[in-house]
UniProtKB/TrEMBL annotation:
Pfam families: Glyco_trans_1_4, Glyco_trans_4_4
Keyword Glycosyltransferase (UniProt): yes
Keywords noted in UniProt: Glycosyltransferase, Transferase
Record's keyword annotation contains Lipoprotein: no
Record-given protein name: Glycosyltransferase family 1 protein
Species of provenance: Cellulomonas shaoxiangyii
Region named Disordered: 358-377
Length: 389
């Protein structure tokens, strides 16, 4: 498994998938090697039965992923490997090396990375080209949401294997960590997100500040390369004492208690496909307010509440406090939806895929000829998708 920050999972969806799927594949008798980026302290050699290879990366946003994957591939190609799972279409330039070594490879294409505002014109063009390369050089493509699968079908005529994430259905949580943070069960609204424009943390904070909500808004998250955006989010909160920024929270006990005891969870992600934070919120049985895009509707269905602007945010958060019983009932229904997202079933899909890759029973590289001009919009393939720069 190549192309992520590695495990233990402390960062995002890819890392969560690698940990949850990887450990289950080990339990089923597979040998799993995960490539990890260097962190503080001595590197681990194993984790939950997975073999870990820790290598450095350049600490620049535009080069971090590629530099680490390049070194990982050099290590991988010097050793026997039956199948490679590459995460992130940005790593596509390395796929020809795997093909030359006759290593079957599936690429998890993630979301529509080229739409992220953090990338300038050159970055967006690179991601579009890398996306095309992933189609052209992968034996199989993995999509984690129907909207992503629809996009690749409409854009390239390319099939994908739909493998979403699992939703941890949380048992009733204690409140000790919550109390230590000065919070009460059912007494706050929650946002958990990296501070990036496509996650609309600014929209959620601005809408909350304009609302008549009485309960505090707790914001968890940060971003290593987004100082300007972080400053904007804090400026929108101003001196409002109702907004509490906790920064990055790595204490899983506190995170679980935050998800489980929030009155609402507000989710602004818009371009990344199925999001593990969203799944964790519904697995905790928390009523969820989400930015109105197809990926979020796919998960929440009619039990979600959807927003597009600050007025929507202000209205729905105020309404949630006005009728807490209805809000809690909506969360309970979402908890039942979460049971459809099962890591064992997800692992079944990955296990079948690796057997198909090893047996050369996958679609193989596609011609990758776009069905529209390169500059044309393809957003009709992903209904309700819109990004605010």
């Amino acid at each position: 498994m190549v192309g992520t920050r590695g495990v233990p999972a402390r960062y995002g969806g890819f890392e969560t998938a690698v940990e949850e799927v990887g450990r289950r594949l080990v339990e089923r008798g597979h040998r799993v090697r995960v490539y990890c980026r260097t962190t503080v302290g001595a590197p681990q050699r194993t984790h939950l039965g997975m073999e870990l290879v820790t290598l450095p990366a350049m600490r620049r946003r535009s080069l971090e992923t590629l530099s680490h994957t390049g070194m990982s591939l050099a290590h991988l190609l010097a050793r026997r490997t039956d199948v490679a799972l590459v995460f992130n279409a940005a790593n596509a330039p390395f796929l020809p090396a795997l093909r030359a070594a006759r290593v079957p490879v599936a690429t998890h294409v993630d979301g529509l990375e080229w739409m992220r505002a953090k990338w300038g014109g050159a970055g967006r063009r690179y991601y579009r080209l890398a996306e095309t390369g992933a189609v052209r050089w992968s034996d199989a493509l993995i999509a984690d949401a129907i909207g992503i699968a629809d996009y690749y079908r409409a854009e390239y005529g390319a099939p994908t294997t739909l493998l979403s994430y699992g939703a941890p259905v949380l048992a009733p949580q204690d409140t000790d960590a919550l109390t230590a943070a000065g919070l009460a069960p059912g007494g706050f609204h929650l946002v958990v997100a990296r501070f990036e424009p496509e996650n609309h943390v600014d929209l959620l904070v601005d809408g909350y500040v304009r609302s008549a909500a009485r309960l505090p808004l707790v914001v968890v998250g940060s971003a290593p390369y987004a100082d300007a955006y972080t400053q904007r989010v804090h400026a929108l909160a101003g001196a409002d004492p109702r907004v509490r920024f906790l920064g990055g929270v790595w204490d899983q006990r506190l995170l679980d208690q935050l998800y489980a005891h929030a009155l609402t969870y507000a989710h602004g992600h818009s371009v990344g496909g199925t999001n593990p934070s969203l799944l964790r919120a519904i697995g905790a049985g928390t009523a969820t307010v989400a930015y109105d895009v197809s990926f979020n509707r796919e998960v929440l269905g009619e039990d979600g509440v959807y927003v597009r602007d600050v007025d929507d945010v202000a209205r729905v958060l105020t309404a949630a406090e006005a009728d807490p019983d209805a809000t809690a009932a909506r969360g309970a229904r979402l908890r039942e939806r979460a049971r459809d997202y099962d890591w064992e079933l997800v692992t079944d899909g990955y296990e079948q895929l690796v057997h198909d890759l090893a047996g050369r029973r996958t679609p193989g590289p596609q011609r990758a000829a776009r069905r529209r001009p390169a500059g044309a919009t393809t957003l009709e393939a992903v209904p309700a998708l819109e990004v605010t720069p």
